[in-house]
Amino acid sequence: MSPIYNNALDSLRHGIEHYLKGPDDSNHKQTILSLSHASELLLEERLNRLNPSWRQLNIDEEIPGLAETIELQARLWCLRELGHPLQETSEETLERLMDRRDAIGHNFECEPDDEALIAESLAFILEFIAVSLEERLDQALSTLMLRDIQPRIFTRGERYEVAQRRLQKWLKATWPDGHSGVFKGTYDCPVCRLDFLAIGYHDRPFCFSCATSVNAAIYPSSCEVYLKAETPEIKVEDILLDWPAIWSVTALKPSLAALKDTSPVMAAATPSPVSPPVPKAKAPAAAAPKKPRWGMPSSAALAVAGLAAGVLFALLIRPRF
């Protein structure tokens, strides 16, 4: 990547970080300044890729005085001259962003439309990186940043349209002659809950709505998609139908078998897989022993009784005078 593109990404990340902190004056100011700088550098990167000698175009003939500074209007004019103009709405968004940047030097207070302007600017930048520069967003920004920022700048309908454009662009680039019979379709993403998760065509499952890879897998018995970091829900019908399926999902059996084969110590210490629990018949309760009607005399009671008998015997046999 070129230094210009790297600098643009640094400014973009800085602006997003301030935007996510909250809508106060300081954060909005830093966000607008950073996004305006990132936009100018991204346009310049686009021009460098289209024609490295674009600076030699006769800009002064159309826009006098801008040949040295190469400001926004000059960049937009060069893109039109090279046959790659921006959409009119995108140009209007950039012009409003630059006007707000120039006004910030005199007024630090937030304006009512700052939030909408930032959202529109971020939406343009993300699409410009993905479509015009053909760069992957998950390599430009962190996964967490992408997942945090997109729901804030796109409505659900807009996010669906953006994801559809990304998917169609990828399909055309991957199968120029058509993807009928080759591409099996997409799944519901467990992160964004939109039907744009492609499994089996990238190093990891990729969601065109999130614009990131997703650590997901398909639950074998129900064909539902779940995050690998989460424990899949085990349903009652799966337990009744197929116990081995549960062992394959949780990967307990393969792990135990591998440990037994590779380590004699673990083979001796590893218990065999647990079978499904079988209820045991309850043994009849033992009858309680019957207590005797009369309690057994203690040793003290026997001693007292013996002493009493001795005294009585002495009284009976004593001589009488």
Task: Give the SSE map.
Blueprint: H1 3-21, H2 25-50, H3 59-62, H4 72-81, H5 88-104, H6 114-132, H7 137-140, H8 143-153, H9 156-174, E1 197-198, E2 206-207, E3 212-213, E4 216-218, E5 225-227, H10 236-241, H11 243-250, H12 252-262, H13 264-269, H14 299-317
Antiparallel strand pairs: 1-2, 2-3, 4-5
Helix pairs in contact: 1-2, 2-4, 2-5, 2-6, 5-6
Which characteristics define this entry?
321 residues, mainly alpha, 3 domains, three-stranded antiparallel sheet, two-stranded antiparallel ribbon, 14 helices, elongated
Describe the structure.
With 321 residues, the protein is mainly alpha-helical. The longest helix is centred in the first third of the chain and has 26 residues, at 25-50. The chain is 56% helix and 4% strand. It is built from 14 helices and five strands.
Uncertain spans: 65-69, 230-257
Helix percent reads 55-70%
What's the structural domain tally?
Answer: 3
Q: Give the C-alpha Rg.
A: 40 Å
Spatial strand arrangement across the major sheet:
1-2-3
Count of helical segments?
A: 14
Largest sheet: 3 strands, antiparallel
Secondary structure tally: strands? 5
**Oligomer designation:** single chain
> What is the overall silhouette?
elongated
Order of helices and strands: HHHHHHHHHEEEEEHHHHH
Strand content: under 5%
Going by helix content, strand content and strand pairing, the class is mainly alpha
Distance between the termini: 138 Å
Task: Provide the residue-averaged pLDDT.
Answer: 78
